[in-house]
C-alpha cells in the first residue's frame, strides 16, 4: 500500500456505459458495466464557489476531485458513486484522469442542485 492510500476514507464504484449490438436484430443498446465496486478512495472538494443565479434559480457547484489507485483504468464519462463520511454522492461523469505513480486524480461532475 502506498502512503497516499492510507488517507483514503471513502469507497467508490465506477460504472461505464458500454454499447452492444445484437447479432440477430442488429440493434445497438447501452448497458451499465461496473469497472470496480467498493474501491478505496478519497473525495476532495478543491473549491466551493458562491451560488449562481441561472434562469431565476440559484445553483451551487463544486470542484470535486477523486483520488484513487492508478491501477484501475477510469475512462472519461464514467459514472461514479462515492460513499465517504457517511454520505453517498452520485456523479454523472468523470474527466480525464491525471495519473501519478502513487495515485490518480479524476475530476467529477456533480448533478445540478438547486438551492
Task: Briefly characterize the structure.
With about 120 residues, the protein is mainly beta. The strands form 2 sheets. The protein has a 6-stranded antiparallel beta barrel with strand order 1-2-5-9-7-6. The protein contains no helices and 10 strands.
Task: Give a description of the structure.
With 115 residues, the protein is mainly beta. 0% of the residues lie in helices and 61% in strands. The chain contains no helices and 10 strands. A 6-stranded antiparallel beta barrel has the order 1-2-5-9-7-6. A 3-stranded antiparallel sheet has the order 3-4-10, with no helix packed on it. It is flat and about 50 Å long. The N and C termini lie far apart (40 Å). The model has no long low-confidence stretch (mean pLDDT 85).
Amino acid at each position: 500500500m502506498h502512503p497516499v492510500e492510507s488517507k483514503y476514507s471513502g469507497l467508490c464504484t465506477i460504472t461505464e456505459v458500454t454499447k452492444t449490438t445484437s447479432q440477430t436484430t442488429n440493434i445497438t443498446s447501452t448497458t451499465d458495466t461496473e469497472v470496480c465496486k467498493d474501491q478505496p478512495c478519497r473525495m476532495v472538494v478543491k473549491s466551493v464557489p458562491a451560488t449562481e443565479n441561472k434562469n431565476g434559480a440559484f445553483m451551487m457547484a463544486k470542484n470535486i476531485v477523486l483520488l484513487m489507485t492508478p491501477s484501475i483504468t477510469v475512462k472519461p464519462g464514467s459514472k461514479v458513486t462515492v460513499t465517504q463520511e457517511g454520505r453517498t454522492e452520485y456523479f454523472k461523469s468523470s474527466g480525464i484522469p491525471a495519473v501519478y505513480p502513487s495515485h490518480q486524480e479524476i475530476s467529477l461532475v456533480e448533478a445540478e442542485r438547486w438551492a
